[in-house]
Each structure stands twice: as C-alpha cells, then as structure tokens.
Amino acid sequence: MDLLPILLGLGCAVGLILVADGLRRRPPGTPTTRTRQRWTSADRTRLLAAIVAGFAAAAATRWPVAALLTAAAVWALPRVLGPDREHTRAIARIEAIATWAELLRDTLSSAAGLEQAITATAPVTPQPIRPQVQALAGAVRGGARLPDALRAFAADLADPTADLVVRALTQAAGYHGGQLSQCLTSLAATARELAGIRMRVATKRAATRTAARVITGTSVAMVAGLILLNRGFLAPYRSVTGQLVLLVVGAVFAGGFWWLARASRVPQPPRVLSADQPGQVA
Fold first, then answer.
1. Domain ranges of the chain
2. Which residue ranges traverse the bilayer (predicted)?
C-alpha cells in the first residue's frame, strides 16, 4: 500500500482543521485565556483520536479521501453533536455573576468600602467566576486603581452580564455610588432572568441538535454497512474521479453539519462595554 497519498490526505485534514479552528469567532479576552480555551487536554485527545481514526480508515479502505474525511469527522462531530458545554458554562457564569452581585450588596453594609467588599467576597464567590474575582481582589490588595482592576476583570470574563456589574461598580468608584446596593439587586434579578431566557431558548433548539445526531448516526451506519457487507457497491470510488466525487460528497455533509450546529447554538448577546474602556458603553 502506498502511504504517500494517505499521509498527504491526513496532512491536508490537519491543515483544514487548524484553519477552521483559527477562523472561528471567539469572545474577546486575554491571549492566555483564549489559548487555554483553544487547546485543552480534551482538544489534544480529540486531535490524537482524529489522526488514529484517519490511519484506520486509510488501512481499511486505502482511500486518502476516506482518511481525510474520517479524521475531520472525529475531530469536529463530538463538538457539533455532543452536549452543549459552552451553553452550560455560560448559564453557570451568569448565575455566578448574579450571586456575586448579591454578595457584594450584602457585604457593602458592613464593609469599609467597595474595595473591602470585593476582597471579602472573593473566597466565597461561586466557582465559575471565582478565579477572576480572586484576581480582582488581588489587584485591589496590590494597590491597583479600582477602575483599572475592574477593566482587567471585565476583559477576563468577557461576558455581557458581567459588563453591567462592572459598569455599576466603576460608577460607584467614581461619583455615582449612592444607589449601588439597589443597582446590584436589580442587576442580580436581571442576570437570573437572562439565564432563564437562555435555558428556554436552548430547550427549543435541542430538537435541532437531536435531528443532527439522528442524521449522523444513520449516515455512519449506512457507510459502515456498505464497507462491511457490500464493498462492491463502493468500487467506483477507488478511481481518482471517485475520490474527487467522495470529497465533494463529504464537503456537502460537512456544510450540512456546520449549518445544523449553527442553528442549534444559542448566540451570545453583544457586550455592553467596549474592550478598552469598560466604563463606556460600546
């Protein structure tokens, strides 16, 4: 078996995966945060599984395009068809921001000031935003100006709900702190209402995700059945023309799965604050 076409096909698949990953739109944040989100241990495991699956498909079919499509499918389909972890994290983050706003409100009555309230709430902040709040408290203890520390905090979270809290805290640190407790109460209620809305939207879009799983399972079962039970039906794909046709078919399926994934995703609302000045409306 000539391994050169297979290696070239796998190299092309890896290149396409990296290009698609680089073109994906991500919320703004610090470079360290974006890198950590992009290449987690799960991503590395998925990439290794994609390469192994590509070689397995090449050994079973001796088709470079089959190796390419299999590697791309193993890489992309778990994220497209699996549980929407990003939505789950977003809901948990919104709920955590609401709880932190309530903690700040309750702590302000006994704290000497806003900086002390932030420091006091850092150890008991809900886990989804605790590292960011602890970093904010550390910056305040280190002598950083509160508006600058809040600017870094907003950039790290990159969440529209957090922007609302940051703007209220920034105004309280300046000239408009008289109504902060009432404002934090209102923001906490708004955040919980937003989390409820996102949950209802996600529930309605779950049917699209289920349809994508059914279509994928049917397609994979049909291809596996043909390979195992009726290879003669796939004989025309052994030629160069057949490989090109198979590539086109794979591209059509990839476009369909991309559309299904996009239709089932809950869009992130626009941020309230600009990336450079969280005290200003974008």
1. 87-174
2. 46-77, 210-229, 241-261
